[in-house]
Amino acid sequence: MKRIILVLAGWFLVGSCCCTSLWAVELAWRDIAAGALNLNTVLIDEGDVSKIFIGTKNGVSKTEDSGQSWRVVLSVSKPVNFLSYGLGDKNIVYAATGSGLYLSSNAAKSWRRVFK
Fold first, then answer.
1. What SS3 state is found at 79?
2. Chain segment 89-102, per-residue pLDDT in tens
3. What is the pTM of this model?
4. Are 63 and 51 in contact (CB under 8 A)?
């Protein structure tokens, strides 16, 4: 009986210490949207998470420094609904918008509409 009580007491102490240390961790959030609160879609390069594309009601913006600075890479008159990389090639980026499908084959330096 003493062994069961000791095991239970030990489990309780270890469990409560581990759980309280998990709850004590605070996550630090920072705003990287640069005022673009109307995000429709986000595309993150899983190989380099500092590269992020966002699609808004006005176009596509890109950061290469984890959101410290943004630049507009595509301006359109209707919302961007979806962003995607090409299969196996991060230089190819697709932007599906209300005014058509746009394609960049040079990492968003230039775009052309491929479907209306």
1. coil
2. 999 999 999 999 99
3. 0.70
4. yes
